[in-house]
Amino acid sequence: MARPIHILLRVVIALRQWLRSSEMAFIAVAVAVGTMAGLATLVQGWLAHGMQSLIYGVAANRLSALNAILHPWKLLALPLGGLGLIALGRFAARHRHVPIDVVEANALHGGRIPALDNLLIAAQTILSNGCGASVGLEATYAQMGGGLASLLGQWLKLRRADLRTLVGAGAGAAVGAAFGAPLTGAFYAFEIVIGAYSTASVAPVIAAALAATLVLRGLHVEPYLIALTQTRIITILDYAAYALLGGLCAVMGIAVMRLVTLAERGFQVWPLLARWKPLAGGVMLMPLALMTPQTLSAGHGALHLDLLLQPPLHLLLLVIVLKVAASVISLASGFRGGLFFASLFLGSLLGQVFARLFNLNPWGLVISPMDAALVGMAGLSVSIVGGPMTLALLMLETTHDFALMGVVLTAALISATITREVFGYSFSTWRLHVRGSDIRSPRDIGWMLTLNAGRIMRRDWTNVVNTMTIGQFRATVPLGSTAKAIVTDADGHYCGIVATAAAHAPGSDPLAQIDTLVTLAATTLTPASSLKTVLATFDTAMADELAVVTPEGQVAGVVTERHARRRYLEEIEAEQRKMFGETGR
């Protein structure tokens, strides 16, 4: 019995080595991940839309397209869904910390996502969307796609860079499958999950996105977004008008992100309300849904309905205000989900409003409300979600209109630039920033956090006692033996650093105690200090050597500025080699 198990282990080890060393094998793994991500997207969408059908009696993706809620008592599903989220949140609090999403995992944890986190986020998002809260499923699609990739990559013991790429491929494949747009999914992975476009990651990411999209097409699943455009000639006027629309999208996107944070702080003002905020949020959503069902769910049905019917200006403005309020309340009160499709819906409304107002000009200048809606989708989504190429390609793949690509890119780039300059975050990174994280993008900074003072310090420092006189120091530490010495008290507690040259200076009193010459007594590092903190401390203290001191006050080691900066540059160079695929497999 032992021999078959031994053979199986050898086969598994050989398989892992082959996958780590072969680019073709890694692409094959990415295809498998894409297939799993596509199927996971299908199952999650079926569960959420099944809940909506059971509760509200509507077809999939059509909850927000209802004319009115005929049975208002059904909206009790919103506060009841909030109670379900409270139960899930308390379960998570008893067992572990806040779940890790794909962006945070790739930025801080090298792509490692625990299985429980994936299941918890999926359950919370499906429950939130299924009961009708104004959140989308794209967050859980990306989470589950990236989470499955992470679990497979960890089992295969992939390198950090390969695991991050595979997680990005899984997340992008899931999003691409939902929209039926493989290039959109691929650039979602590059811009939003991996944080960089590199030659080493192109093939596996695109292979995963294609696999996921083909799986859902083979199962005849209708994509999220279907849009048509009109035949026209794009003029300089169009570029100028849509550039202005891109700027308005940035303003609106920043406002939505700020409002979510303000609303979250408002819920925290009252401790009792904070404990039951999903329930309170569900109650607050009910009157908004009674005014218009377009505030419910992510807005798939409402988006297509408004593009088809082109409602009057006052109705468009009302829906914008109510949808923003519903999205802000949903997210701030603890309903789980994303703003991807909600931002597409709001962007389409903003674009139509912009076109209607623009066409009132006295010079007879006209732009198409349909085109403006599509440009607004890209512009607002870029501001909130990030990824200008992702949204530009989404518009291209859903409309097949190359003529519109130029103005979409113009609006998207202007929106992204203004948002980055004025605000500096996308919605996902802004939420992490509010929680105290340093993340500004999915770029891998986890290595900087793990490369701490305890790992780079040296342990061969020269130590002297603070009761020693300068004359005794000169006899113990000759000039030229070391540049600096660590001064401690009789119990070994850190007192400061003394420069050997200062102790041997002709003007120093040999009878004075050595602690009269110490510097940096209040400036130290801890073993857990990240490399970023280490470098910042060197800049602030204007020192070239710092002591690493334990919480008990004992000296653990010494870090020099030269060594810290060299290690930092070495890691940066290693990251660049990984980006360009120069490390080999």
CATH architecture of the largest domain: Orthogonal Bundle
Domains (count):
3
List the uncertain runs. none
The count of β-strands is 5
Strand content: under 5%
Radius of gyration in whole Å, from Cα?
29 Å
Continuous helix count: 25
CATH topology of the largest domain: Clc chloride channel
CATH superfamily of the largest domain: Clc chloride channel
CATH class of the largest domain: Mainly Alpha
Question: Within the largest sheet, what's the order of strands?
Answer: 1-2-3
Shape: elongated
Characterization of the model:
The protein has helices at residues 2-21, 23-56, 77-95, 102-108, 115-130, 138-155, 160-179, 182-194, 199-218, 236-269, 271-275, 277-291, 300-309, 313-332, 340-358, 369-385, 388-399, 402-422, 427-434, 446-450, 453-456, 470-476, 500-503, 531-541, 561-579; strands at residues 463-465, 484-488, 494-499, 545-549, 555-560. The protein is mostly helical and 585 residues long. Strand 4 and strand 5 form a beta hairpin. Helix 3 packs antiparallel against helix 5 (115-130), helix 16 (369-385) runs parallel beside helix 18 (402-422) and helix 24 (531-541) crosses helix 25 (561-579). The longest helix is centred in the N-terminal third of the chain and has 34 residues, at 23-56. The model has no long low-confidence stretch (mean pLDDT 85).
